[in-house]
Design a protein that fits this description.
This protein has 2 helices and no strands. By secondary structure, it is mostly helical.
Length: 89
């Protein structure tokens, strides 16, 4: 296995992680910003007010996109396992 192939595998793995994590991270960011604006306008500084809505939003995103995430990760894993015989040469 050449250095270029290893670099390609690492790049593909990093992109897969970014694609799988980005829906949850973007959701947490948007919900956090909305809650922060509401807290700033109402002067309520309760910590659980930011935590609970983020957890609920992330669980909803996992519920809607979980199937796609698991199938994408499964396809990537199958591709890696199919490359093992070529790596042994």
């Amino acid at each position: 296995m050449s250095l270029g192939e290893v670099t390609f595998l690492l790049q593909e793995g990093i992109l897969e992680v970014i694609f799988l994590a980005s829906p949850m991270l973007i959701t947490a960011l948007v919900v956090g910003l909305v809650i922060a604006v509401l807290q700033a306008t109402t002067s309520i500084q309760e910590q659980t007010l930011t935590f609970v809505p983020k957890v609920i939003a992330i669980l909803l995103v996992l519920g809607f996109l979980g199937g796609w995430m698991f199938s994408s990760l499964g396809d990537y894993t199958v591709r890696l396992f199919r490359m093992i015989p070529d790596m042994a040469r």
